[in-house]
Design a protein that fits this description.
By secondary structure, the protein is an all-beta fold. The protein has no helices and eleven strands. One of its GO terms (cellular component) is cytoplasm.
Length: about 170
């Protein structure tokens, strides 16, 4: 008696990865470990959340007037102001549905177990904090978990008249 497992391997090409940008310790935006990241539904932006309580949206933020040839890689840099969420940000997720006005809904999971909702929109001057709007949060009077790991995912479900976004919150 024993346990047997059969696997079928289908050959596929190796994935291709490219490094578009990097930072050094003395020029980094995050000062502690990055715990989570996610791509926007339109693949235009990448968001990171960290133990340093910061959430930052990254991307090719060059204006449309800047001429970039197809052979040149995009210039990836922070596209948002630095959002300080007040606690270690252990999870972050873009909503898979774009919001009106070229903006994005993001869920941020905190080490405390709380989940915050923010709307972010790209702006010409990300230095000001006007690109982030807080939309809501889970009830902090009722702890969602007693452990330090939070996983937040956002899902979309279209209805006949509108799209709805749902947050799935896992604690372990």
């Amino acid at each position: 008696m024993g346990i047997y497992c059969a696997c079928v391997c289908i050959p596929c090409p190796e994935p291709h990865f490219s490094l578009y940008t990097s930072t050094r310790k003395d020029t980094a935006v995050h000062t502690r470990i990055i715990w989570s990241c996610d791509w926007s539904a339109d693949n235009q932006y990448f968001v990171t959340s960290s133990r340093d309580k910061k959430v930052i949206v990254w991307g090719d933020c060059s204006s449309s007037e800047t001429s970039v040839t197809p052979d040149e890689p995009p210039v990836i840099r922070p596209c948002s102001s630095i959002l300080d969420v007040g606690d270690s940000a252990t999870a972050v997720s873009f909503c898979p549905i774009l919001c009106p006005g070229n903006s994005y809904l993001l869920a941020v999971g905190l080490e405390s177990g709380q989940v915050l909702l923010y709307k972010w929109g790209p702006s010409e001057e990300p230095a000001g904090a006007s690109d982030w709007t807080r939309y809501g949060e889970t009830d902090s009077s009722y702890p969602l978990h007693t452990h330090t790991h939070t996983l937040v995912c956002m899902h979309a479900r279209p209805t006949n008249t509108q799209s709805q976004a749902f947050i799935t919150h896992f604690s372990f």
